[in-house]
Amino acid sequence: LATSKGHLEQAFDAHARGNWASANGQLRTFFDALLDALAVKLDASASALPSGQPRRAKLAALGFLSVPLNEWDDTGKSFINGLVKRLHPQGAHPGLSDEDDSTFRLHIVLLTAALLLRRLDRMNT
To answer: What is the pLDDT of residue 91?
Structure first.
């Protein structure tokens, strides 16, 4: 998970300096990289899938993302898809952000990542 960790560290640094757009970009990249890496960690065959939605679907197929908890569905209206859309509201270059929006993104990404990483730990024990 070194790549995703590097993006998170850059997000923290940018946020601390008040570079909201940079922090947001790194948070998006962190979360995407984390989900991609989790899919590969749980099933090495996921490395043959394109990054993004196909690997997220793999996480759901493996039961890692919960359908009953509305974390995933195939219509794109689940929590994970909603969060990814929230992190990319206008594409990869949504313009500048403010402190409140960037801090919201930072917190929701941290909470979600912590949940998923604890879940991974439980699966590996």
So the answer is: 55
CA distance 32 to 118: 17
- 8 within 8 A of 23, measured Cβ to Cβ: no
21/24 Cα distance (integer angstroms):
5
Query: Nearest Cα to 22, choosing from 117, 113, 96?
Result: 96
Q: What are phi and psi of 46, to 5 degrees?
A: -65, -20
Phi and psi torsions of 56, nearest 5°: -65, -40
Predicted confidence (pLDDT) at residue 95 exceeds the cutoff of 80: no
> What confidence score (pLDDT) does residue 74 get?
85
Distance of CA 5 to the CA centre of its chain: 12
> Whole-angstrom Cα distance, residue 24 to residue 18?
11
User: Is 94 or 68 the better-scoring residue by pLDDT?
Assistant: 68
Alpha carbon distances (Å) from 16 to 32, 40, 61, 99, 110: 22, 31, 37, 10, 15
Q: pLDDT confidence of 90, banded at 50, 70, 90?
A: low
Per DSSP, 45 falls in state G
